[in-house]
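Contributing new records

If you add data, match the layout below exactly. Sequence lines come first and carry their own label; structure lines follow with theirs. Keep one chain per record. Anything else will be rejected by the validation script.
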Amino acid sequence: MKRLIVVFVLLVVFSVFLSADYDFSKIKERVSEFTLSNGLKFILVEDHSVPIASFVTYVNVGGSDERIGIFGISHFLEHMAFRGTSEIGTKNIKAERKIMKKMDALFDRLLAEKSSLYPDNEKIKKMEAELEKLKEDATKYVIPNDFDNTLKKNGAVGINAGTSKDATRYFFSLPSNKLELWAYLESSRFIDPVFREFYKERGVIQEERRVRTENTPIGKLIEELQAIAFKDHPYHVSGIGPMSNIRHITRADMYRYFNANYTAKNMVIGVTGDVYPQQLKKMAEKYFSRVRPGRKNPRVFTVEPKQLGEKTVTIYEDSQPWLIIGYHCPSILHEDFIKFSVLDRIVTSGRSSRLYKKMVIKDKSALTVGSFAGYPGDKYPCLFLMLALPNSGHTTAKLIETMDAEIEKIKKDSVSEEELKSAKTRLKVSKIRSLGSNRGILMSMLSAEVKLGSWEKAFDELKAIEKVTTKDIQELVKKYLVKTNRSIGRIEKKESKEVKK
């Protein structure tokens, strides 16, 4: 008991410290921004403490912008953006383009045959063998991984990218004296991309889907839950897309999608580190002014209708049971969104949270519990997920009962001030830690710029967290955490499936 009192006192003291002393204006003072004539915006956060610079290109396109037939193309395109240009990654671009043209024509015929009413399997096998031969022939003109290797030879680290349902991000760091190299390479791949090794990379993505989804029980469950939770909105399809889509996307599809979405007004570029505004602007105008203006993607107009009743999906696997409950919640634009992050700390996050104490420590009915808001994205109304892994001898049905009982307690009596203060303090610590590195700051700023309309709103969360009250939490739970607003996904062991006679 004495230890708990000490911990609580420390949390309260730290909460006061966070509210009073953590001043984001120190970061804002280091920020400068400008927009090129084509509409491409740059945000710079200066830090001259070390001769390093980090770069992030944020493209306002993700899985939510796709359509039937090309679901998964945003992720596929992210992979292809590392394949180089007409100057990078090739030994002979003219010869390479000729072979790519042959491959694409052959693949079109192959798709047509596979889609016919009566496919000729022998013909298909012959064309597939011919395509493999062309793929092999094309390799003699390719300099493998030339884009990445050029960066690495010049000291680049952290070369990576990520695609979500909301956006695509590209990022890496370089010595700051390589600013022009970054500007040349980064602009080139978004002005003059060559989607070489297209069919080879398709195989890589197919294997990625198998590993992350099709051969993983929890991966399959997440995908199934997503599919039933969203009826109309594009959030209902996983970011990597169905295997059938991956197999049918063509290089022409890829170029059309690229040309429509990788435009100046649909991108924002962030730089942080040992770079001065005048340096960055000079390099930006020299290299990035050639990016086509285009337009910023409009928000998806499809609105997910109000759910009419509880939905459930159960998959049977020879694996550990799992439970996931998804409640519909508003987007990051709504004032209630941040309250879900506070609720997360109250119900599942940390050893002091309600369900952790009840299910993991006391009852030992669960091995772990968790929750978070913003699945599969937060640009649009999304899901607040609650997850639990049953302990041996305990069922998912019993876990649901326990979780529902705790939710009902909050509806009836709300939460204590002590719980709320602890939750808010832990959440603020987490938010500050996410801004503890230059890249973390930059990622948050670019996301806020695109989703909220201004990079400055990335620093408003601490104040929003502080305003949350016990009454807010109670009303939040009453409004959103109701059975008609949720979808339940479960993994049960195969032998537990009962067959009625």
